[in-house]
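note to self — DONT lose this again. spent like an hour looking for the file last time. sequence + predicted structure for the chain T wanted, 256 res
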Amino acid sequence: MSEIYLKKLESSIADLRAQLVSHPVYSAIKTPQDIRHFMEHHVYAVWDFMSLLKSLQIELTCVSLPWLPVGNASTRYLINEIVTGEESDVDEVGNRVSHFELYLKAMHQSGANTDIISQFIDSLQKGTSVEAAMKSSNIPEAAQQFMQYTFDVIASGKPHLMASVFTFGREDLIPDMFISLIKEIKIQFPDTIDVFQYYIERHIEVDGGHHAELAHQMTMELCGDDEQKWDEATEAVRKGLAARLALWDSILGKLN
């Protein structure tokens, strides 16, 4: 029965997903400067993706002492498997790194400005709340709104909402066409975006493949045959995709 609900959810979000996959922001990226603009906005979605992931681990596994068995062992396996890949992957030369740290490395190589994201992270490390850190920084408005929605989902305390937004709103939304564009730019400007190209390829390979399959299983496990949960999940995903569209529109406006 959960497979039927899953197909219904996918059908309900197909329109928004189609808009994201064919968004004109991809074809608007033509120069290294365009890549830098994109990264300076997108980096916040990379960061809050990690926060959404860890919120799921907190909800679905035991992360406190004394250790106790929490929830379903299959679900624990699924989220821990994804966390390992996202938090401790390998960079282009084989060193262990989180996807967020890999993204920062790509930004540094391309010459993108990392001052604002670094100040934001520094504020959080000093104990500032996410909301206060956002307000005291110069983070682009659309990126702030995107992050705010992510943390609203986290604050709901509902694992099935977190899992559905994680699965259908985050895991596989950068299309293969983006790879072709990056490869063309790399031919013109070698040694400036090869780390970013690796990040995108790795994202598609891992997040869009193995991790997406695990995430689908996790969502079905958490929603089960509860129609209300699936309805709530569908609404949450649609709002998440709408927030992504607003972020993409904002970036496109900057590029144009």
